[in-house]
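User: What would this chain look like folded?
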Amino acid sequence: AFIIENFNDQKPDLTEREGIVKTKLWYLGYTNITYISSARVAVSDMSNSECVIATGYPVLDDAIINSLITQNSQKVILLYDAGKVLGGNWNLNSNNQFRNLYVESKEAYLKDYIQGADFLVQESNNAYFIQNSYPSGWIKIGRNQYENGYTAFYLPHPAGGKGLILTYDPLYYTEGYGNDLFKRIIGYVTDTQVVEPITVPDGNIAFIIENFNDQKPDLTEREGIVKTKLWYLGYTNITYISSARVAVSDMSNSECVIATGYPVLDDAIINSLITQNSQKVILLYDAGKVLGGNWDLGSYNQYQSLCVESKEGYLKDYIQGADFLVQESNNSYFIYNSYPSGWIKIGRNQYENRYTAFYRNNENEGKGAILTYDPRYYTNEGDTLLSRITNWFDLTVSIYDDKDNFVIPDSYCLSQNYPNPFNPNTTISYQLPKPSFVKLSIYDIKGRLIETLVNEHKNAGYYSVEWNAKNVGSGIYLYRINAGNFSSVKKCLVVK
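Assistant: Here's the prediction, encoded as structure tokens.
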């Protein structure tokens, strides 16, 4: 039952806003719409309708709305200013801060968003919000970027009636989150699943991203940098999942879950992945803020360094007390005094109690890593730290095609080490088209053997190995692979 402003509801004379909403309903498959002019709502029978929807003020009054929800167990959707009849201090503003939605409570049609998520719902023009005085009995669940500027409400009734208010203008919903929010509203009132889940293929990394588009992934700069670093390490099988649909997606077969921003995962999801699903979770930069603690930023070298306080987790192979620069510029996060519950502190910046590196090890093989430096500004040591995390997780370097079939390399290859130059750690990747006995060794520039990294039989596939050059001086070194009849040599540079 679509309540419209104009009188003609037989060949419906729709406003522009009503026409947009009708199109959105059609797109979701709801084409059976009965239009009712506000002039005859009071004498019409809507008791058998799927739901009642209104997009303007005033087309329904408060008595009719309350009667539909509480007496007739109806579902009522009030978009834009249609809920004004219920009271409250309604205001308009066109700034971006007023067109955003901040998820304050994971309830009703916001239940599958991330707690604290903040995204643009309306791309331009004025957006309504309700301030200080709110519709009686309705529950506040979302607001704009200002406290008390609420934009999302719902009203449940024990008999099954439901009401919801969303104050953004459907004429200007954003292509991503605005339309997604409309879909969730329809799913909430019709008790249907309208958000498509993603199932991560076996062995893929699940990369949780901030923006809505995860099919042709719309990555932030930080996410793009991390993707490139993962590729250099040989992890090219990545499934991107928007934070908007993490809650409905299946990550149980993923190699690991990674996030680089706040908030794209909430604490409940992170804890469930590690403790119940035996998953491995990497939280870079401020992605771990959802776990609590006092987080702050600093831009001096003292804040950008890592002091190894405990040789545990992904820092187990460092020297106790080692202190090195992880981030070359810009702000770096740290956590002080209050820390994420259940996580073990293993590294800090150069100030006491300002921790930057944590890990969590669950008895069911789930693991977690927090590293608070900004990946956009990693030094070579920063890149090595990311490699250490993936090695500690024991991630498998392998490549699958778009049908999830394991791809056998078609040739032998020895890749250039990364990072290069480096100090003291670097990663060397290679590929084998068939099972082979592999010997991979490091030599100095005069051809003298320094160290053998691999000396065993390997199946066909993609591999990487880390070299720690802490016991050699600065200079050019050679690394050589012999596998079957294949042999290759490349140079690398240690700079101390």
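The radius of gyration is 28 Å. If you want, I can go into more detail on any region.
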